[in-house]
Structures are given as C-alpha cells and as structure tokens.
Specification:
Elements lengths: L10 H10 L12 H14 L3 E2 L25 E7 L6 E9 L4 E8 L2 E11 H4 L18 H18 L11 H18 L2 H27 L1
Antiparallel strand pairs: 1-2, 2-3, 3-4, 4-5
Keywords: Membrane, Transmembrane, Transmembrane helix
C-alpha cells in the first residue's frame, strides 16, 4: 500500500480499477477526469456503498462495476448512485470537471435528506499526472497519490455523509434470525407450562393408550 505523497500505484487500488473497468483505455479522456471519477467511485465502494443500477458497465459482475451509463452520458460529468446496507436512502456521487482549471468538483448527497451534502475539490493532475498512461491496457501508474485521495474522500465525503445519514428503520433478518425466533417461541411456550399442565397432559395420554388397547381387544373378539 502506498503512503501519502508516494507516486507508486497501490496494488489494492489497481485491483479495484481492474474490477471496475478492465483497461483504462476503455474510459480514458485527454483531461484525466473520467479516470479520477472512477477512482473516487472505487473508494466509495471500499467504504461499503453498493452500485444502484439495473445494468453495469460492459456487463461487469464485480461489486466495483459502475452503472452502464456512468461514462459518456454527460460532458465532463460523472454520476454514480449507490445504496448502503443499514441506511434507508440512496446516495449519489457527482464528479464535475472544469477543463480550464483542471479542477474536479466532487459532490455527494443523501437522496432523502437535502441537508446531507458533502463537497470537496481536487486537482486532476495531482492524481492523474500522465493521461497518456490511461490510453494503455494496464492500470499500473495511471492513478497516483492514492492514499492521499483515500484520506480526502474519507475525511470530507464518505465519513461525514454516513455520520449524518438516516439509518434503516427495518433491521435486516437472516434465516438464522428466523430459526432463532421459532426456537425462542417454543422455549417460551414450554417454560410457560405448569406442573399441573404436564400432569394433565400425561393423564390424557395414558387414558388414550388404555382406550386404544381396549378397542384393539374388542376388535379381536369380533
């Protein structure tokens, strides 16, 4: 893992990039905006956000695969929509590039909470200094200063966005939870039985057994 200030590519992030888009040349732009936007998307997924889309880019099946229309739908803008387990609303990450200044404006928001919005600005060439590398098939060296980028997103976007987000009111249930619920109900039922209930049940069973025996004997005599 690269440290802040390092220009080396983190093996972990490179793996994320490959999972999202197999080769940078498929989405590269001369200004590097699409590459930085994709890197931010991968970091959002690192933080537990999950893509909210019916179709993924190039039919990708990875959790890092962005929506099919994330690239090329708008000029100098990239939008990602997510869900986050444990939270009620959807989230959006909007990356907007100003080509003249080389600055990217990053805006993240919670759909059902107009006041829960986070912003930050980034210089594209700090993280994508050589756009020529993005025209190849390898992600190695395409995105640099990755730990600094990760820290920026955590501190100014993902962290505060989740800290102020509305949690889901309905807990997620698993089959194990259901099984434990049934066992708990049965346990409560048996614990509620009194000694008198148990004795009466035993007497009823004994009477039923005697009745069946007498019925069997009467059938044999016929």
């Amino acid at each position: 893992m690269s440290s802040v200030g390092s220009s080396e590519t983190s093996p972990t992030m490179e793996k994320h990039f490959q999972s999202a888009v197999r080769e940078p040349r498929f989405v590269q732009t001369d200004d590097g905006g699409s590459i930085l936007a994709l890197a931010l998307h991968c970091l959002m997924v690192e933080h537990g956000f999950r893509v909210e889309a019916d179709k993924t880019f190039a039919g990708g099946t990875s959790v890092y695969s962005p929506a099919s229309d994330w690239h090329g739908k708008f000029t100098n803008e990239w939008v990602f929509e997510y869900r986050r387990p444990g939270y009620a609303s959807t989230f959006a990450l909007h990356c907007s590039l100003q080509p003249a200044s080389g600055k990217m404006f990053v805006h993240a928001r919670e759909a059902d909470s107009p006041t829960n919005m986070r912003y930050m600005g980034l210089l594209v060439d700090k993280y994508v200094p050589d756009t020529g590398k993005a025209k190849g098939s390898s992600w190695a060296g395409v995105v640099v200063e990755q730990e600094a980028l990760r820290h920026q997103l955590e501190e100014y976007v993902a962290g505060p966005l989740l800290a102020n987000a509305l949690p889901s009111s309905e807990p997620e249930h698993t089959p194990q939870d259901a099984s434990r619920g049934v066992q708990s109900q049965l346990s409560a039922y048996y614990n509620s039985l009194t000694r008198r209930d148990i004795l009466l049940a035993g007497t009823a069973l004994a009477a039923a057994s005697i009745g069946l025996a007498l019925f069997a004997r009467s059938r044999q005599r016929l």
